[in-house]
């Protein structure tokens, strides 16, 4: 029910079922409950395994993306805490990374943290890491 239009098009639904799901997304409370019962009735008449597989694939992709983003946050924190040691490890794994840019951002983030300033460099490091790692 909480699928975006893009993800909904990836699920193999016939026209009547797709229409019913889209309508259910717009309805509220009791009308939505009745519409969900109608969708259940439609689903009883078809093979739901392809639908289930498509939904699992969408959910799995979302979970993988969340895991990658969490790893990026951990990596950013390690870079700020450990400095050049963590940067050297990162450069061994990703030789295309810009050493000077990352080193400057790390130093700026350390200064911002020490002076309790807004964490602009902290966010920039995350974006640089995201671009670097997701582009591979």
From TrEMBL:
A single GO CC term for this protein reads: cytosol
**NCBIfam families membership:** PRK05255.1-1
Protein name in the entry: Ribosome-associated, YjgA family protein
Note the PANTHER family from the entry. Answer: UPF0307 PROTEIN YJGA
Which GO-annotated molecular functions does the record name? Answer: rRNA binding
Q: Which GO terms describe its biological process?
A: ribosome biogenesis
Which InterPro entries does the UniProt entry name for this protein?
DarP, DarP_sf
